[in-house]
Design a protein that fits this description.
The structure is a homodimer. The radius of gyration of chain A is 21 Å and the shape is globular. Chain A is about 35% helix and about 20% strand. Chain A has an 8-stranded mixed beta sheet. The first copy, chain A, has a 3-stranded antiparallel beta sheet with strand order 2-1-3. The N and C termini of chain A lie far apart (about 50 Å). The first copy, chain A, is an alpha/beta fold. Chain A folds into 2 domains: about 30-75, no CATH class; about 75-265, Rossmann fold. The first copy, chain A, has helices at about 1-25, 65-70, 90-100, 145-150, 150-160, 175-180, 195-200, 230-240, 245-250; strands at about 30-35, 45, 60-65, 80, 105-110, 115-120, 120-125, 125-130, 135-140, 165-170, 190, 205-210, 215, 220-225, 265. The interface between A and B is large, with 51 and 50 residues.
Amino acid sequence: MKRIYLVILFLLTYFNISHAQTTTQKSTIIDSVFVCPPCGSCDYQTFDKAGKCPMCGMTLIRMSLNDFKKQLNLKPVTVCFYIQDGVELLDFAGPMEVFTTAGFHVVTVSKTKTELHTNGLSFIPQYSIKDAPKADVLVVFGGSFAETVADTAVISWIRAQRSTASYFLSVCTGAYILGKAGILDNMTATTYFLQIDNLQKTLPNTKVLANTRFVDNGNVITTAGISAGIDGALYLVEKLRGRDYAKSIAQTIEYDKWIPDQGLVLNKGN
Amino acid sequence: MKRIYLVILFLLTYFNISHAQTTTQKSTIIDSVFVCPPCGSCDYQTFDKAGKCPMCGMTLIRMSLNDFKKQLNLKPVTVCFYIQDGVELLDFAGPMEVFTTAGFHVVTVSKTKTELHTNGLSFIPQYSIKDAPKADVLVVFGGSFAETVADTAVISWIRAQRSTASYFLSVCTGAYILGKAGILDNMTATTYFLQIDNLQKTLPNTKVLANTRFVDNGNVITTAGISAGIDGALYLVEKLRGRDYAKSIAQTIEYDKWIPDQGLVLNKGN
């Protein structure tokens, strides 16, 4: 009988401790990653443990995080942030912090190069839709979005990115912009929690999910509102560079609260 | 004996479910708060439950969140963000999102009104230290901080805010700026996780803590790095407006990960 009480005591202690750890204890600092030796196809991806590369079969090697970051500079990822006037500040500032910390090349694009206003800050975008560089990743955001959705020139430009961009990411009500451009057709998506029903009515060919931090359809990712953009951006870093590298970025910005799998991932093989 | 196994099963299920809830389930939307009827001294504070106001003794009433926000407009809080060139983007963008959402009046101040650069964004501050409005709250940030710490005109201005500002908040290595101005003397503080030891050496009269999301000394709050500024700002909203109101702001920006007490609070009565 005593043993049973010891088991109960152990279980209570174990679950209390493991829960407490999620809120108070620092995880180990990541200062090196497993990578594939240069082979031309998977040199910019990290892996969680030693072994063979699942893509090319070569034996993985351990590399310092600093050296891996230098290697990444050889093949920068260009991330275009399409930003409209009245954008919500943290919608784009969170992902901008994540992507710049990850060494991605982030540029701001708007319809024209006139000043943009957000809550507390005004700035001029670097590019207009007429001279924006080729995007590897296109990201759109919420806040005031109605004018953008109604602007055929902007929506045509967003739609045209499909021919060159490898990934699309929307934060918050930025989902309306991707939706209007047809990029969410036959996809599963999410948006700001107060806009779930309305987005579903607006996009009958899209399945819109509530209570979901982000949804990945392979190369189209949508996130919930405002601060959820941080999670979506870290998730995209993980897709492009591996989980350990994404974890190192979360550590760098002290986003200890990041839970890598806290989202719905469809087509996991992609 | 069967009962014991049922107890074990219950405990396992209970702890698993309660842990899962922290990562997947939405909390109830806050649309009303308990407030004190107008009495002149505590009209801008919310309370978690019905009862008597602990400050003036009047019976608390329930008020819709929208009506409370209108009431707040009658007594705006001015938050001065001192921002230097090379500031870290999320250091200030996180707190700016929180404070503007809470209805506070946020202004940007720098030494002069020349353009400031951060990771991915350039902008002009609204005020210089010569014409900045009176601050109720002064906030400083990290990123490049050495020039600011060495600038006697800026440090004198920061120090002078003590005569008017009710609260000071530093995010990340912004702690060096408050420290240089003497505002952390004989206080407990924290900073960016890679700067803990160095800050301790720099400020021998301050107790610097590692692995702490924020530290509150009553009217001086310091936070860990970059994304921790969001938590520090929400905590300050809680101090000024009550926990339910701060929770409603965390919900609005979908910062579901906020844990109100995840920090060290000294002098809790203050």
